[in-house]
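Our collaborator T.R. sent over the components below with a one-line note: 'Predict the complex.' Nothing else. No constraints on interfaces, no templates requested, no preferences about which chain binds where. So this is a plain run: every listed entity goes in together, and whatever single assembly comes back becomes the starting point for the next discussion.
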Amino acid sequence: MLTRRFSTRAIYQQMRDVLAARIATGEWKPGTALPSEADLAREFGVSPGTARKALKLLEAERLLTRRQGHGTFVNAPSSDERALRYSNIRTSGGERIVGEVKVLKVSEGPANEAQRDRLQLRSEDCACQIRCVRLFNGKPFMVEEISMPSTLFPGLTEREDFGCSIASLAQEFGVLVGGAEERLTIGPAPRDVAEVLGLEVGAPILMLDRLVHAIDGRPVEWRLRHADLADKYYAANLG
Amino acid sequence: MLTRRFSTRAIYQQMRDVLAARIATGEWKPGTALPSEADLAREFGVSPGTARKALKLLEAERLLTRRQGHGTFVNAPSSDERALRYSNIRTSGGERIVGEVKVLKVSEGPANEAQRDRLQLRSEDCACQIRCVRLFNGKPFMVEEISMPSTLFPGLTEREDFGCSIASLAQEFGVLVGGAEERLTIGPAPRDVAEVLGLEVGAPILMLDRLVHAIDGRPVEWRLRHADLADKYYAANLG
DNA sequence: TAGTGGTCTAGACCACAGA
DNA sequence: CTGTGGTCTAGACCACTAA
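Returned assembly:
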């Protein structure tokens, strides 16, 4: 029974948090149909309108899909809706490029200054670091340097497969991803990047700096990428 | 008195359209306080909740600002909220760059193939075309080629000042701007661009291709830009 | 036909801003 | 204090889907 008596937080927000937790922990599995609005309202002891507001929030956060006459369903982190959320590089034909991922190096240790700054870590915190290259049609086009807080992803470096999206990876650790910011600049390709991508050292290349947050605002992943945009473009949506 | 009897469109959507028209035509001027939810509900013969939904839509479209205990106010097209909506180039310090605009050339005539394609024009339609350069701290950093449907902006080419934002310009013609898409690529600077920006011909440069829509979905403006990103970056928000 | 979410109503109380 | 928007209630009817 949710109430506002013991919290300044609105009831529909509290309810959203509880429902999100059920999704994050896997209590509600991907593809599962949720109880109807009316049933959820009864369970939480709130009015149907309030339950509806909580569900609408989770739909906007891409965690649920609702269809009139059908029901409310949990989106898989591997669904296009969630996995391709941050994939903004497309072919000149307009198709999203995901590409295969080849991991080059995995390491873990005390966070460096850049990582502490971007991931809001303290000086004693550690970070996982993954370096990989993305291939499209077998040809490498992007080198990535991924950093994640070790506290959020304990034992991450022991994994074998990093090919999945950050949405899937995070959810395995009970974290739901939310918004992200990306910064784009043009810069000269460093030697190590140029070698992997088959470019000349210093060739102009797109640099992408992306920070992904959890739905509660905590920084979850910082990704620094060098991309060769030949026959491709970066698509931005200005709501 | 709005009703659903004569339209499949939801009442709150119909009401949004009417309110948006009042803003577009200037019947409600920027800075004006709207009647309260309850008064608007009475005027339109709907329940307060329905009126509220219409107002929420317009707030999401950046046309209104609502503040509890204060009221609902019309946003000026020149307000940061609306004018800087599409300004994604920032200084390395993170401040939005607007810059001064210097118009190089204004012309009007039958739309070329690219304009017809991007602005959804028919073969007999005309387009206004404006070429200008943007300066930051007195230094040119971006060349723009702007195209707009002549039918939407009659007499545009007779104007003197194009320095204002597309939101302001469009509203002078009774058009409210909504979403936009942008495509970014890296390419060699053409001679004319390089000369204006003080770069070598063929130097790598950011190309931005942006299409702005009206809130009803019609294409309103197509902008092709070449930008020198030195000491700057492009900021994208991945909601 | 039963059950779902989408819309809509007509109220209530609360938090907040300003006179 | 008054009036605003934010939240919340407890219903109603409708459009849609699938069995």
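Summary for T.R.: Chain A has two domains: 11-74, 80-234.
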